[in-house]
Amino acid sequence: MKFPNFIRIGILPLRHLLEVNYDSKGDVHFKSGVEANFIRVLSEFLGFSYQLVITDDAEWGQMKDDGNWTGIIGLVHRNEADIAIAHLTMSPERSSVADFLFYTVEENSFVTNLPGFVMKSLFYLLPFHTNVWITIISAAIFMPLLFMILRSKALSFHELLFRLFSILLGQQGYIASSELKCRILIGSWIIFSLIISSSYRTVLLSTMMVPQFAHDVRNIKELAAAILDGEYKASTSKGSVDKELLSRSIDESLQVIGEYIIEESWFSEDNIVVAPKYIKDFTAVLGPRFFFLLEYGEPPFTTKRIFKETISFWNVGLAIRKDFCCKKHIEKYITRILYTGIYKKFYEDELFKARLNFNWRDIDPKIKALSLSDLVGAFIMLGVGFCIGFVVLLIETQKVNLIIIPCK
């Protein structure tokens, strides 16, 4: 059977995939994009002209309560389009009303803004967690009290505190005692101080050199916990199958994310934006990883974080009417386009163009020279030490003035 000379194609305008423009008559035409070039090559091989049809509801397609379909799947189902393309996921529900011809695989994941850096002025507090700092301070206060209880010849509390603190800082500190229980106590403190001080120095170097992020969410489990705490939101497109996939998942974290998306109606504002140009802070967007790379770039030259975890794998295909005559012809040429690497070349060309359009000034370099603001913490500690030393000097001076020297 001869392939038709004219077909209708349902599309959704998508950046980097199906970019369109309108002529003076209001007709829509392809401008650029991976799948726009894909259709152009198919039309040249099969020798057909086409009319682009854009759905009014701006959705890929989902079944409504009355059994009808929305989006470009609905166009095919209602015979308003012969084929439809817009990086369509091949789901069992959609396959019941339209046939699909596979041409790529989609990996879905989340993307967020990279969080801001922690102030370098606080770098000296970062090596240990807050609970560790509280434990160290408690041990430093409790140990002198324990010494005062066990020693027969007790030193004052501030003298013991000063000597034990000197040992903790790796300085020379000595507490003389011939009693076995006190020697065991001193030995345990020396071992404790060695572990704490060496761990602090080791981690401190890494903390100073590697950027530290605030309110950082790196994986699905952390995202679910942040959503439960009310710190983060997650969104996806309204017509996507992802929300049902999340809510039906056996993974508890994905279930939490999916339930919140549905209950709170966390959907993209215009529904068809797979990768919004601007992502709000403390918001994770679910979508195809390859499209995120086109829109946001690849590390380290990006201001976004794409999760390494893959939520789902979906086959992506061209939707065709059930009663369309020439599916074998289209399938044959799609196979040729894939095997010859033409589709991959379209994607790499678009990826290259997207990289050229990146605003490199928005990228905060990870490796750079230390500035004065990075060393504020060190200067603050130095200033505090000078102030304490000056106060101690005044106290010692007053003590000397109060000493009565007997006359001979």
UniProtKB/TrEMBL annotation:
GO terms for biological process: detection of stimulus involved in sensory perception. It comes from the Eukaryota. Belongs to the glutamate-gated ion channel (TC 1.A.10.1) family. The keyword Transmembrane helix applies. It is a multi-pass membrane protein. Its main location: membrane. GO terms for molecular function: ligand-gated monoatomic ion channel activity. InterPro entries: Glu/Gly-bd, Insect_Ionotropic_Sensory_Rcpt, Iontro_rcpt_C. Keywords: Cell membrane, Glycoprotein, Ion channel, Ion transport, Ligand-gated ion channel, Membrane, Receptor, Transmembrane, Transmembrane helix, Transport. GO terms for cellular component: plasma membrane. The lineage of its organism: Eukaryota, Metazoa, Ecdysozoa, Arthropoda, Chelicerata. The chain crosses the membrane at residues 122-148, 183-203, 375-395. Pfam families: Lig_chan (PF00060), Lig_chan-Glu_bd (PF10613). It comes from Trichonephila clavata (Joro spider). This is Acetoacetyl-CoA synthetase. The keyword Ion transport applies. It is found in: Cell membrane. Residues 21-78 form the Ionotropic glutamate receptor L-glutamate and glycine-binding domain.
